[in-house]
Write a structure and sequence with these properties.
The structure is a single chain. By secondary structure, the chain is of the alpha/beta class. Helix content is about 30%, strand content about 20%. Strands 2, 3, 4, 7, 8 and 9 form a 6-stranded parallel β-sheet that branches. Strands 1-12-13 form a 3-stranded antiparallel β-sheet. Helix 5 runs parallel beside helix 7. It starts with 7 loop residues before the first strand and ends with a strand.
């Protein structure tokens, strides 16, 4: 019997070890310009919307959601954007469920992500979210680094786009140690580029970050779903075989060799 132990690592799709994702709130009209920048550079992200604020003339009309956000994820930001830690828990549930119902009716698929409105959350709210069909939720405070989150219901981004974005982007591009998984997560509001007259920052960032072979460009929910599926891989105790019970392929590295494990496949390592 071969008892040689292997180093087995989880990889992102294609065997990559870096992922870039973006998260933007409120669905304001500046999203049109931001989405165009993302699409031109192959960058993908999540847009957190309030279905109950449809009459605000500064916001993207709901009739545009499907086409505008077709390459990205639509997530919840609650129905009316209240500071939910101050709300009765029943109202928190209704704020999220009603937002999900109306956004799903528009986009025709499940809405499973959340950005906490005003960054407001609590332990009680986080316990509620899985029961409401929410798989992850983003907070406002940022971590400044590129680590994967330990708790997807307290998902902290790398930085707001006004916080040394280009410097952090260059640092991310320079990362090379493939024994780690790295994530750069940028959040903000698209109207802030108009308020601060600094669209050039995001234009330069997208031009710099797009088109890199070692980066996976993903939405928030794609990252969560992929990592969930990676955790469902079933390895033998000897580490010589792996079964993937999920539908999607998962990539791993075995002694520096990148391998795709197709959905439903049993693979000898």
């Amino acid at each position: 019997m071969d008892t040689k132990m292997k180093n087995i690592y989880t990889c992102f799709p294609g065997g990559r070890h870096k992922v870039l994702t973006m998260s933007y709130d409120d669905g304001r009209e500046e999203d049109r310009r931001l989405v165009e920048l993302f699409d031109q550079n192959g960058i993908r992200g999540t847009f957190n919307l309030n279905a109950g604020l449809r009459d605000d003339p500064r916001r993207i009309p709901q009739s545009e959601y499907v086409e505008l956000y077709k390459n990205h994820e639509i997530a919840s930001h609650t129905y009316l954007h209240p500071t939910i830690a101050r709300c009765p828990i029943e109202q928190v549930a209704q704020q999220i469920l009603q937002d999900r119902r109306e956004l799903e009716a528009i986009c025709g698929k499940p809405v499973r992500g959340l950005a906490y409105p005003n960054g407001s959350t609590s332990g009680r709210i986080r316990e509620l979210l899985p029961l409401l069909g929410i798989r992850y939720a983003r907070v406002v405070p940022t971590a400044g680094g590129f680590a994967m989150p330990e708790d997807y219901y307290l998902w902290s981004g790398t930085c707001h786009h006004n916080d040394r974005l280009l410097e952090r982007g260059r640092d991310f591009l320079d990362l090379f140690k493939t024994q780690y998984l790295y994530m750069m997560y940028v959040w903000g509001h698209s109207y802030e580029f108009t308020t601060y007259d600094n669209w050039q920052v995001m234009e330069d960032f997208c031009a710099m970050m797009g088109g890199h072979e070692d980066i996976w460009y993903a939405t928030n929910i794609e990252i969560v779903d992929y990592m969930d599926a990676a955790e469902r891989l079933q390895f033998t105790a000897a580490g010589d075989k792996v079964y993937n019970p999920s539908a999607q392929s998962i990539w791993i590295e075995v002694d520096k060799e990148k391998l795709e494990i197709p959905g439903g496949a049993l693979v000898t390592l």
